[in-house]
Q: What sequence folds into this?
């Protein structure tokens, strides 16, 4: 994330002002002490928001899970870019990497294997979350990392009492610190993902426009229904997100039609089209909005963010510390 640079125009756009208004703000505050700038870092966004008091309406705390039992659906690229964009706009965001591959950790510029403590320590060793958190250069974005140690998490949780609620308990202790807690889950069925569903308020299910991607949907929805019936856990929002969509192919059109027929009430209206920029940005550890904000992938994801967050209740902004 240290490699991210914003142009002056882009920086002003994110703050919701013109370049002229930015210049005036810098001239009347200590922000302009170093003279005119043409490039900015993510940390500058946090500094300017704090000095100028530019914050969005605070959203009610939401725990949001990106999950599909089938792999290869682009879940991590979506979840990390979604989390970064919300933080970029000034919301307090916690990104939680649940996958032992640590891809969400990598997508925001960190190596999971370099981290001494991860989510494993929180869930199994009862390490305080504050000791595991990574505070990124963008003050509004924090990360709970993951690495290969998470591959044994289901076995470690098995003998524990109330094992289905470990993640919920950990995240509930942070509910006053964040507006969005975004969880990126591995494509598997087990105790960890059961924990994730039980912790979540909202479930977002990325799928590709091919029929193989639908195989995990039936099991996922059956699992959600069982948790409703047996444990009384009801998700506030479930949305299937059609990802990497290519409208020019027949199979993609047919697959979308099948989704609309069988899961229409859950299907998000916004579609994320196929975009090579997503893969490039993820491989470089830079979210799509910082990598190429003008790309169709970024535009589509912004529309999706607007749709997914429209149902969250806004509450007045509380005073924030640096």
A:
């Amino acid at each position: 994330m240290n490699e991210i640079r914003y142009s002056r125009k882009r920086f002003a756009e994110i703050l919701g002002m013109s370049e002229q208004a930015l210049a005036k703000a810098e001239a009347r505050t200590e922000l302009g002490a170093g003279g005119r700038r043409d490039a900015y870092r993510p940390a500058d966004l946090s500094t300017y928001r704090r000095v100028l008091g530019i914050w969005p309406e605070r959203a009610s705390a939401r725990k949001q899970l990106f999950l599909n039992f089938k792999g290869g659906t682009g879940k991590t690229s979506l979840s990390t870019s979604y989390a970064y964009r919300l933080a970029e706009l000034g919301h307090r965001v916690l990104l939680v990497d649940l996958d032992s591959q640590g891809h969400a950790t990598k997508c925001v510029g960190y190596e999971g294997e370099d981290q001494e403590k991860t989510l494993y320590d929180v869930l199994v060793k009862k390490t305080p979350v504050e000791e595991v958190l990574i505070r990124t250069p963008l003050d509004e974005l924090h990360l709970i990392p993951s690495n290969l140690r998470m591959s044994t998490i289901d076995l470690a949780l098995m003998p524990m009492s109330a094992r289905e609620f470990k993640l919920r308990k950990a995240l509930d202790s942070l509910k006053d610190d964040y507006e969005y807690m975004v969880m990126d889950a591995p494509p598997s069925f087990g105790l960890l993902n059961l924990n994730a569903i039980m912790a979540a308020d909202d479930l977002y299910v990325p799928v590709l426009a091919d029929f193989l991607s639908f195989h995990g949907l039936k099991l996922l929805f059956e699992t959600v229904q069982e948790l409703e019936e047996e444990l009384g856990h009801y998700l506030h929002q479930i949305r299937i997100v059609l990802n990497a969509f290519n409208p020019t192919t027949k199979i993609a059109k047919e697959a979308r039609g099948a989704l609309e027929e069988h899961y229409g009430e859950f299907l998000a209206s916004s579609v994320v089209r196929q975009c090579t920029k997503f893969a490039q940005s993820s491989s470089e550890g830079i979210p799509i909005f910082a990598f190429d904000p003008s790309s169709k992938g970024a535009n589509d994801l912004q529309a999706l963010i607007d749709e997914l967050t429209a149902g969250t209740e806004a509450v007045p902004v509380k005073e924030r510390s640096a």
Q: What stands out?
A: The mean pLDDT is 91. The two ends are 19 Å apart (CA to CA). The chain has two domains: 6-52, 58-315.
